[in-house]
Amino acid sequence: MAVRLFEGKKHAAAYLQYRVSPTELINTIMNYMEKKTLKHFNLAVDVGCGSGQGTVLLAPYFTKVVGTDISPAQLEMAPAKSNPPNVSYRQSPAEELPFASGEVDLVAAMTAAHWFDRQQFLQEADRVLRPGGCLALVSYTMDMELEYRDVSNRLNDICKEV
């Protein structure tokens, strides 16, 4: 099970106020996706979205963006910011995403994946991503190893390269 922190209202308000927005990283992810996949993107999911700083940055690129978080207090902070009309939020653990198989173009986790049960999260991301979809894990540090099927070494090599 994922680690459950950042759930109180006071902490969620401070998180909204002080968390750094990953604009440059979003641009890098989208440049990659535009080179490797379709030019039109329907659905992005920001897993562990907190108060939505990264979620809203995805809005210009997708028809629909959904931020998910396990914390109701974090999600209450998200709509406090002005959200584009194509952005919404849902309470959900990272390991149980409320989307159909093959429905998602981008699964992103911005400074959150280190809290997830990574094995279950990677299985869930694999399930919801469309063929050719993108998984983007943004972090301050890469002090975790990813393990998933027979691609574990490749996943870790990619993370170290980036």
What does this structure look like?
The structure is a single chain. The protein is 35% helix and 23% strand. The chain has a single domain (26-161), classed as Vaccinia Virus protein VP39 (Rossmann fold). It is built from six helices and five strands. The longest helix is centred in the N-terminal third of the chain and has 14 residues, at 23-36. The chain is globular, with a radius of gyration of 15 Å. It has a five-stranded parallel β-sheet with strand order 3-2-1-4-5. With 162 residues, the protein is of the alpha/beta class. The chain has helices spanning 9-18, 23-36, 53-57, 72-77, 118-128, 152-161, and strands spanning 41-47, 62-69, 87-91, 104-110, 129-138.
Short characterization:
Residues 45-136 form the Methyltransferase type domain. With 162 residues, this protein is an alpha/beta fold.
- Which radius of gyration do the C-alpha atoms yield? 15 Å
Described by strand count, sense and barrel closure, the largest sheet is:
5 strands, parallel
Helix content: 25-40%
SS element count, helices: 6
Order of helices and strands: HHEHEHEEHEH
CATH topology: Rossmann fold
Number of domains: 1
Low-pLDDT runs: none
* Mean pLDDT over the full residue set: 81
Global outline: globular
For the biggest β-sheet, the strand order reads 3-2-1-4-5
Give the helices and strands, then pairings.
Blueprint: H1 9-18, H2 23-36, E1 41-47, H3 53-57, E2 62-69, H4 72-77, E3 87-91, E4 104-110, H5 118-128, E5 129-138, H6 152-161
Parallel strand pairs: 1-2, 1-4, 2-3, 4-5
